[in-house]
Amino acid sequence: MVTLRDHCAALVCATVAVGAEFTVRWPRLSTVLAVSATTERVLPAPRKKERAGRLHSFFSRPWSDYALFFVLVGPNLVLLAVFTYRPLVENFQFSFFDWNLSSPTSTFVGFANYREWASREDTWQIVGNTVVFTVAAVVGSLVLGLILAMLLDRKLRGRNFVRSAVFAPYVISGAAIGIAFQFVFDPNFGLVQDLMRRVGLGSVPDFYQDPKWAMVMITVTYLWKNLGYTFVIYLAALQGVRKELMEAAEIDQASRWTTFRKVLLPQLRPTTFFLSITVLLNSLQVFDIINVMTRGGPLGTGTTTMVYQVYEETFRNFRAGYGATVATILFLVLLIVTLVQVRIMDRDDQR
Known about the structure:
By secondary structure, this protein is mainly α. It contains 16 helices and two strands. The longest helix has 32 residues, at 63-94.
């Protein structure tokens, strides 16, 4: 006679058999499902009672806690207000005035500075220089930094020395590096010119006369200086990569490209997002390298970016109002780009 216990035993055996067949046929999918099942967390929706309890606990704290909080945080807030937000507000205010730095008075002109910026002939060339340099700097830093981090993450002889050598230029002054690379790209006895002649290239470009090659020179110099930053951040992120997922892909005989694209790159997405924002902000603020190597030239505005234009208009042409206008426009562009990046990252996290 078949009992209930026999039916349960048969059902368990059938379930185990189906699971074993599923694992044999689709090992990678089973691994992913197992990892997802063990790592997925279901967060309960906050209830009204819990919110009320948190508010009650917040307002029921003793006043000594709030006093300690303001004592510790207050000096930082004061410094931010005085040296960050106050200049930001005053810069926005100066953009509506025609003010010469050598004059104690200023004239209110409204949006005249903004209209002049939009109608000037060199505006869009400077904007184009800024976009080209920023895109090349961000993409080049991320790609080269990740490649170097993956290469030096392996057990190689002398890798600690190479890691230090890659990171060292990042801590050196940009002005010093700009002076050193002036000799590297010198049209007469520079290292680049000598290597190109040895290779057999007939026409060697003049990096100080051709605006396109001058932009290449500035970009290469910036990448060489700041590559250590993205390299170190990616190297630290690679230490936290889940080894079991990499081993599962290796067992499934996935190609290196598939492993990189499907397993490694998704785990580095938060790091890539962080680096894209920080490198973007840093590249848009480059001044020292441009000032030392080209001073915004050749041919007037060949390598002039918006940040360098702020310096030229404010401290060379003594037009502080117009320089504040360019700085305000650059700030608004950075704000919009950063908000878009954050929005895209939040949308990916919700998926």
